[in-house]
């Protein structure tokens, strides 16, 4: 972890209390976001998001698969996050495993909705091809290249950008008579369907330091946290998932207050992110 | 033997608990001299034993066995499989013994207990070789379908005599087992009929109603510790750790020897010791038969 | 059946939070001291969900661990092979282990056992829905039974949200009083008999773990599915209420065990 002296700790805490953080930001200001899309040609969609010194990559790979018997009319999505050993010394060896598992679970909770699949940010029914027979399986992989705090928000943004960059090939199903056989499919090389990402939420993490909470904490600030609340919020202002980190207990009213602050912040973040994504895509098309 | 002398000198002054910790062997031997054990049992007596059938609702047969503090939970799940070509009219039993980390301070997650595979092997040897279950009874359609019975035994609390408790729970789970109703579907495949459908769907029920498995003979076991000239029946974990020579005798319901297991140890058993162990096991088998029958009749009343 | 051997009658506690609408409330049992060889343990049965938690320690940390002036907490949740309707592998649940860790660490006074580790191991004997909240509540009882210093017991409760057209056609389950009554017993176990299946129909879930002695302190909160803010308020209120009821019952359970051992 970050080794800080008592003076440094005091400086960070004092700054947050006075609404002026050590990098000059206010408590509820994000670091500048930069988005790059289409960086991995082999993937169906990919994006790289930089949030200050935090640098993450997300890629989306679509494969044909068989839907689960419980939800025959839906596709499947798997989210997995890996922490590169280059990102921080503690990720070397098996050190990153626990964090990877935690981030993967938090992203799944935020993006995939309830077990029935409703309320998911990613519209799973749009991934169905032939009910009960074939569907698209989306493999979403996140990679943490460099870590300077707030990994979850950055990964959430990168996945949103990667999904809007994703083109899923059009599939023509040969009309087969028998109901038992697996229908034959023809994957088009030219026609792609753009993936609808309007429902994909953004994740806002509020980190509680002392009595105040801040967004987009750097790893120095994260080392001072007592607890953190990650809320994923969609366009409609609805909460799609919530994860609490840190051991310290929170008062219920504080949690409700934090969710409403997160909701407020999410609007700006969403607008900001969407304009960055469209700028990145325009840039990609030009080149 | 200076240490022994000091300890005997100390024993009059020390508190009992401290003496027990510092000189465990002497502590136990002093009890043995009086023909009694630290938990107030005579040497040849087993701990209180109880049995409850049907502890797990999600399994086809299950039982919870308790011998003293040692607790075992056994559950059987039945699945339909295709029998092997060598024995087309026989089913199959898979036995697994687990020691999860909750059962004992020496078991840690990710590092399985040493005793678990040993007990697992002993159990499958005893159950499969004693002819307790006729594997032909598990056949459904010769060459096409047969039952695969998965027997999983979990040790919930390990306090000695693990094999005895595991065997008791396994035997009880088999006597609680109800083989589900199956029928052939249109493709000729065997499907399990759920309870609601059983009334209306009388297509070709392979076995008409839930039935019990016939157990041709039931085996029970008793583990004894051999220490010097003493024989201690049904040891606790503490006794097992201090006095190392164990002997397990398995007898079937007509008191015939199924298996005898003495995995080495510093005490070399003479013939009379073995005979004494077998005699103790005979007594114990009678007790256990009574307990099992009571558990079965209790369940039928419910 | 099960309870008659593993549970002694005086410690049987049946919690009836509210009479349910459709079926008799599922059986609920909490008891401490289920495993003799552990420092502390507890058994919980909520409907079909059956859980045993053992606590070991404080004991020596693993050799490879660095020196630490506060105690360590090590959690592990595993399932039996017959816990689920389809025979499983009896594997460890990494996600549950990490949530259990986070839910408990805020309540335990780690300073009270420096350099050592407390191990909390849970085994789900049978999964009937709401496994995780039952594991967490049961683990906190087991910690108390082991005499580990805690700020307070933690109780955990989850609610599900079920949309229109699903099993009971209640719409958003929290909207009507009828639904409210329906959900309260559901809160601490899963719906009457249908249980585990019910969970696969859910549109969303909310799980709260909290301490409740002087002031409410939420140590762990997870939400899945799409929720509007008022719904979250309502669900949280419901959960907190159920948590404090469950907490009272857990306290009662400890008191009964203590008075039984004195006799």
TrEMBL record, chain A:
Keyword Cytoplasm attributed: yes
Domain Exoribonuclease phosphorolytic: 30-169, 199-263
InterPro entries named among the record's database cross-references: ExoRNase_PH_dom1, ExoRNase_PH_dom2, ExoRNase_PH_dom2_sf, Exosome_comp_Rrp42_subfam, PNPase/RNase_PH_dom_sf, Ribosomal_Su5_D2-typ_SF
GO molecular function: mRNA 3'-UTR AU-rich region binding
Keyword Electron transport: no
Biological process annotations from GO: exonucleolytic trimming to generate mature 3'-end of 5.8S rRNA from tricistronic rRNA transcript (SSU-rRNA, 5.8S rRNA, LSU-rRNA); nuclear mRNA surveillance; nuclear polyadenylation-dependent rRNA catabolic process; rRNA catabolic process; TRAMP-dependent tRNA surveillance pathway; U1 snRNA 3'-end processing; U4 snRNA 3'-end processing; U5 snRNA 3'-end processing
UniProt keyword terms in alphabetical order: Cytoplasm, Exosome
Gene3D superfamilies assigned to the protein according to its UniProt record, in alphabetical order: GHMP Kinase, N-terminal domain (3.30.230.70)
Superkingdom field: Eukaryota
GO annotation, cellular component aspect: cytoplasmic exosome (RNase complex); nuclear exosome (RNase complex); nucleolus
Annotated Pfam families: RNase_PH, RNase_PH_C
CDD domains in alphabetical order: RNase_PH_RRP42
Family: Belongs to the RNase PH family.
Protein name in UniProt: Ribosomal RNA-processing protein 42
Species annotation: Actinidia rufa
Lineage of source species: Eukaryota, Viridiplantae, Streptophyta, Embryophyta, Tracheophyta
UniProtKB/TrEMBL annotation, chain B:
Taxonomic source organism: Actinidia rufa
Key words of the record: Cytoplasm, Exosome, Nucleus, RNA-binding, rRNA processing
Domain Exoribonuclease phosphorolytic: 46-180, 221-267
GO biological process: exonucleolytic trimming to generate mature 3'-end of 5.8S rRNA from tricistronic rRNA transcript (SSU-rRNA, 5.8S rRNA, LSU-rRNA); nuclear mRNA surveillance; nuclear polyadenylation-dependent rRNA catabolic process; rRNA catabolic process; TRAMP-dependent tRNA surveillance pathway; U1 snRNA 3'-end processing; U4 snRNA 3'-end processing; U5 snRNA 3'-end processing
GO MF entries: mRNA 3'-UTR AU-rich region binding
Name of the featured protein: Ribosomal RNA-processing protein 43
Protein family per UniProt: Belongs to the RNase PH family.
Protein location: Cytoplasm; Nucleus, Nucleolus
Major place of residence: cytoplasm
Pfam families: RNase_PH (PF01138), RNase_PH_C (PF03725)
Upper lineage: Eukaryota, Viridiplantae, Streptophyta, Embryophyta, Tracheophyta
GO cellular component terms given for this protein: cytoplasmic exosome (RNase complex); nuclear exosome (RNase complex); nucleolus
CDD domains recorded: RNase_PH_RRP43
UniProtKB/TrEMBL annotation, chain C:
Pfam family of the protein (one): RNase_PH
GO terms assigned for molecular function: RNA binding
Gene3D superfamilies linked to this entry: GHMP Kinase, N-terminal domain (3.30.230.70)
Any single biological process term in GO: poly(A)-dependent snoRNA 3'-end processing
Cell location: Cytoplasm; Nucleus
Limits of the Exoribonuclease phosphorolytic domain: 30-148
CDD domains: RNase_PH_MTR3
InterPro entries recorded: ExoRNase_PH_dom1 (IPR001247), ExoRNase_PH_dom2_sf (IPR036345), PNPase/RNase_PH_dom_sf (IPR027408), Ribosomal_Su5_D2-typ_SF (IPR020568), RNase_PH (IPR050080)
Presence of keyword RNA-binding: yes
Domain of life: Eukaryota
UniProt entry keywords in alphabetical sequence: Cytoplasm, Exosome, Nucleus, RNA-binding, rRNA processing
UniProt key word Nucleus: yes
Entry GO CC: cytoplasmic exosome (RNase complex); nuclear exosome (RNase complex); nucleolus
Family from the record: Belongs to the RNase PH family.
Name of protein: 3'-5'-exoribonuclease family protein
Organism in which the protein naturally occurs: Actinidia rufa
């Amino acid at each position: 972890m970050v080794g800080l002296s008592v003076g440094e700790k005091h400086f960070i805490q004092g700054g947050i209390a006075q609404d002026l953080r050590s990098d000059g930001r206010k408590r509820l200001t994000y670091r500048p976001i930069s988005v790059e899309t289409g960086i991995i040609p082999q993937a169906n969609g990919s994006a790289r998001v930089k949030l200050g010194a935090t640098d993450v990559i997300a890629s989306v790979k679509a494969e044909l698969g068989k839907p689960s018997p419980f939800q025959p009319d839906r596709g499947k999505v798997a989210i997995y996050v890996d922490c590169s050993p280059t990102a921080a010394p503690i990720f070397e060896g098996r050190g990153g495993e626990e964090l990877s598992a935690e981030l993967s679970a938090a992203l799944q909770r935020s993006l995939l909705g309830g077990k029935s699949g409703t309320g998911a940010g990613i519209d799973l029914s749009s991934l169905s091809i032939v009910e009960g027979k074939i569907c698209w399986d989306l493999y979403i992989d996140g990679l943490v290249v460099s870590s300077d705090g707030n990994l979850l928000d950055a990964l959430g943004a990168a996945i949103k950008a990667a999904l809007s960059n994703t083109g899923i090939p059009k599939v023509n199903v040969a009309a087969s008579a028998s109901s038992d056989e697996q229908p034959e499919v023809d994957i088009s090389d030219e026609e792609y369907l753009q993936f609808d990402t309007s429902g994909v939420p953004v994740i806002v993490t509020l980190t509680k330091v002392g009595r105040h909470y801040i967004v987009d904490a750097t790893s120095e600030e994260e080392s001072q946290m007592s607890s953190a609340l990650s809320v994923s919020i969609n366009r409609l202002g609805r909460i799609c998932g919530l994860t609490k980190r840190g051991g310290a207990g929170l008062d219920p009213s504080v949690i409700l207050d934090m969710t409403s602050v997160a909701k407020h912040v999410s609007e700006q973040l969403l607008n900001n992110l969407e304009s960055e994504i469209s700028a990145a895509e325009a840039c990609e098309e030009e080149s | 033997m200076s240490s022994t002398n000091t300890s005997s000198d100390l024993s009059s002054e020390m508190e009992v608990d401290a003496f027990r910790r510092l000189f465990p062997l002497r502590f136990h031997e002093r009890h043995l001299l009086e023909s009694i054990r630290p938990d107030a049992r005579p040497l040849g007596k087993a701990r209180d034993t109880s049995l409850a059938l049907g502890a797990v609702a999600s399994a086809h047969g299950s039982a919870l066995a308790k011998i003293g503090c040692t607790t075992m939970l056994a559950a059987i799940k039945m699945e339909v499989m295709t029998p092997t070509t060598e024995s087309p009219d026989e089913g199959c039993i898979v036995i697994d013994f687990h020691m999860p980390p909750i059962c004992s301070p020496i078991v840690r997650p990710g590092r399985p207990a040493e005793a678990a595979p040993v007990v697992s092997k002993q159990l499958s040897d005893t159950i499969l070789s004693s002819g307790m279950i006729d594997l032909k009874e598990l056949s459904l359609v010769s060459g096409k379908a047969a039952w695969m019975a998965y027997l999983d035994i979990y040790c919930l609390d390990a306090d000695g005599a693990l094999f005895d408790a595991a065997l008791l729970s396994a035997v009880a789970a088999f006597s609680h087992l109800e083989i589900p109703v199956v029928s052939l579907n249109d493709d000729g495949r065997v499907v399990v009929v759920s309870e609601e459908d059983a009334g209306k769907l009388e297509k070709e029920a392979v076995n008409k109603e839930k039935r019990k498995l016939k157990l041709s003979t039931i085996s029970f076991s008793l583990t004894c510790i051999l220490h010097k000239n003493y024989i201690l029946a049904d040891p606790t974990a503490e006794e097992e750790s201090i006095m190392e020579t164990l002997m397990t005798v398995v007898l079937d319901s007509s008191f015939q020897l199924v298996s005898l297991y003495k995995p080495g140890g510093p005490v070399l058993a003479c013939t009379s010791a073995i005979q004494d162990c077998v005699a103790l096991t005979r007594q114990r088998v009678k007790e256990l038969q009574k307990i099992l029958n009571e558990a079965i009749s209790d369940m039928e009343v419910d | 059946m099960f309870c008659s051997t593993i549970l002694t009658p005086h410690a049987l506690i049946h919690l009836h939070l509210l009479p349910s609408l459709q079926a008799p409330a599922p059986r609920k049992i909490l008891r401490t001291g289920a495993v003799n060889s552990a420092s502390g343990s507890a058994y919980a049965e909520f409907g079909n969900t059956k859980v045993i938690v053992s606590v070991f320690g404080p004991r020596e940390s693993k050799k490879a661990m660095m020196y630490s002036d506060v105690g360590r907490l090590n959690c592990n949740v595993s399932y039996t092979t017959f816990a689920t309707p389809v025979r499983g592998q009896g594997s460890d649940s990494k996600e549950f282990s990490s949530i259990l860790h986070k839910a408990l660490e805020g309540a335990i006074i780690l300073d009270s056992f420096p350099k050592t580790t407390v191990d909390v191991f849970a085994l789900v004997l049978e999964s009937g829905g709401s496994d995780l909240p039952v594991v967490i509540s049961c683990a906190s009882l087991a910690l108390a039974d082991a005499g580990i210093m805690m700020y307070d017991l933690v109780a955990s409760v989850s609610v599900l949200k079920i949309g229109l057209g699903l099993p009971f056609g209640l719409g958003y389950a929290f909207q009507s009083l009828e639904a409210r009554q329906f959900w309260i017993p559901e809160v601490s176990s899963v719906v009457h008999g249908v249980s585990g299946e019910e969970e696969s129909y859910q549109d969303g879930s909310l799980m709260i773990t909290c301490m409740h002695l002087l002031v409410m302190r939420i140590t762990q909160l997870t939400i899945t599915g799409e929720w509007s803010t008022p719904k979250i308020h309502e669900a949280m209120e419901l959960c907190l209420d159920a948590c404090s009821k469950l907490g009272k019952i857990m306290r009662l359970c400890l008191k009964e065990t203590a008075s039984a051992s004195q006799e």
